[in-house]
Write a structure and sequence with these properties.
This protein is α/β, with parallel strands linked by helices. The chain has a single domain (5-196), classed as Formyl transferase, N-terminal domain (Rossmann fold, 3-Layer(aba) Sandwich), CATH 3.40.50.170. It contains six helices and seven strands; from the N terminus they run βαβαβαβαβαββα. It has helices spanning 16-26, 46-53, 69-83, 99-104, 128-137, 172-196; strands at 5-10, 33-40, 58-60, 87-90, 109-113, 141-148, 158-165. Strand 4, helix 4 and strand 5 form a beta-alpha-beta unit.
Length: 197
């Protein structure tokens, strides 16, 4: 990469995938990448604390102030446009983005999903629900996927995937933990792949 690329990270929770990005930048695994801002819809999201500890600007957009999804995403668009980012990374962001938001940043939004899409994706398929569905299905492998975001949930073009075996007596917690470890690696690889193309 010849010039520094700026990313915005949207997160609603603990921010472990955000931390993986921060660490990759710090350890020069992601060269010429700068996190311009971390934006959350949850005031108590630990992702915001991780960002502050790393000296990254944080923004909390309160959904209670903007009750319509269209109003919320309009404000989110304004905030992100202020940072002039090359890529938006959804790292555990739990809001479904509106079509107008996705179209405003076409081919500039990526998401990480804790399964091998197209299996176990779509509305309502997040977190423990995904792992529970995988275990109930009897599949022998699961994994994680990074994909471009389109206006159809979890249906955008796949950028990269990593497979994780499902163990014979696996638990939701055990499978989730092993997949999360792979998510951290995959997300960093996908960011590099997208920004270096």
């Amino acid at each position: 990469m010849s010039s520094q690329k700026k990313i915005a990270v949207l997160a609603s929770g603990a921010g472990t995938n955000l931390q993986a990005i921060i660490d990759a930048i710090k350890n020069s695994k992601l060269n010429n990448v700068h996190i311009a801002a971390v934006i959350s819809d949850k005031k108590d999201a630990f992702a915001l604390e991780r960002a502050k500890s790393a000296g990254i600007e944080t923004v909390f957009l309160n959904p209670k102030d903007l009750t319509k999804n269209t109003d919320y995403d309009k404000k989110l668009t304004e905030v992100i446009n202020n940072y002039d980012v090359d890529l938006i990374v959804l790292a555990g962001y739990m809001r479904i983005l509106t079509k107008s938001f996705v179209n405003a940043f076409k081919n500039k939004i990526i998401n990480i999903h804790p399964a091998l899409l197209p299996d176990f994706g779509g509305r309502g398929m997040y977190g423990k629900r995904v792992h529970e569905a995988v275990l109930k299905s009897g599949k022998t492998e699961s994994g994680c996927t990074v994909h471009f975001v389109t206006d159809e949930v979890d249906a955008g073009p796949i950028i990269a995937q990593r497979k994780v075996p499902v163990m014979p007596h696996d638990t939701i917690a055990g499978l989730s933990e092993r997949i999360l470890a792979e998510e951290h690696k995959l997300l960093v690889e996908a960011i590099e792949k997208v920004l270096c193309k």
